[in-house]
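Shipment paperwork, digital attachment
Item: protein structure file
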Amino acid sequence: MRRPFSSVRARATVGATAVVAVALAAAGLVVVSLLRANLAGHADLRAEMTARQIAVKLATGTPYRRLDLDDTEERPVQIVDSAGRVRAVSEDLQAISGSGDPATMLVPRTAVLLPGDDDLDEEVPRPGRVSEGVRHAAGRATVYGRTAQYRFAAVEATTPAGEAVTVYAGAALSTSRDAVAVVGRAMLAGLPPLLGVVAGVTWLVTRRALRPVAAIRGELVEITASGDLARRVPVPRSWDEVAELAGTTNQTLAALERSVTRQRGFVADAAHELRTPIASLRTQLEVAAAHPRLLDVAELTHDVVRLQHLAADLLLLARLDAGDEPAPPEPVDMAELVRDELRRRPAGARDLAIEADVADALRVRGSRVRLARVLSNLLDNAERHAAARVRVRLGPQGNAAVLRVSDDGAGVPPDDRERIFERFVRLDEARSRDDGGAGLGLAITHDLVRAHGGRITVGDAPEGGALFEVRLPTMHPRPPAGP
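Attachment content:
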């Protein structure tokens, strides 16, 4: 039973929807903040324009009583002199806060009209001045009994009579706030449908994208149930990661099929090879049980030894297939190993000459026992097929130690030079179980060389027979030790 949101499609849908929701929420907050700041800037601009228009009139000599401050419900105005006295105020402006001067927090019912103000409308000796600077502040104002939020702009001016005044003009924020509220409600109303569309599209797209994965999974389930490793999963034509996964899966199935086929063949061949010495031993033991005098101890010992060698070879191959390492790699002197092998090799029944040409100071890293097995198998194979001579040569070539074992026998046909390294393979000339062995020596040699990071090939020898060449990476020579 699946857990909630355990499928890739569900997790992708939830994740994409969450990401879009967070992104839209962040974008909405940014938009609302920018809109609020923009509308506040427009309110500051409107308030500043109103304040400057009135300041210009005062600077050009317009008296307070002639200022047009009637249409001021949206833009309340208050004029204060340097002493903090209110000189003029908008009609029905009852209270104001945030204009910047604590003395002007409350607006009196009647503006202060100083003596001589009426004389300013006749003739002015010189024009006044309007300050370039402006101050902005947020506050509240009560107009017609309604209190609302405003943005105030303060502009200083000097009248022709030299009086310094400050003109405070406000711009209502109610329109801006209403616009921001409308935009916010529209965003909130449009967010759920948009998230629904995103979730639906993501669900459909992921279902379409994962459909090949479901087909691959279904095919693998059928392969597992049937055990037919010859079947392959379908590869989509999308040329994407799913197609690469399908290709890799087919490669794995092919490798698994080859491994199983090889294992079955190995077991069948091993059983076939073991049957002959076991049957021979049984026959001789039955004859000995019935006629003790007819027991051939030498032949019986020969069959036991052959069976022992075959079992040891099968065990070694199984260990090599499992990647078993007998011991940590150690430096091996190949020249010394070749000389020791040639010295201990007993003289065979055949009169063969073994020639050796060995170079010194060739060290490789690996297992001495297994490298000795490589040389022993190659010498056994050469002695089995040679007519009169076997030659062993060891020398350096680049960063490799090259071991060559050749004979003057019939050689190996080009078509069989890869096949002879397979297990239980014997060529027509070596079909005799007495002379040809079980067909495991070259297979063991091939696997041992490959386990040491080298490679083995077979070609034509100058003498006309087979030439086996083994290349192993050499170790870097160590510098001589100091005194």
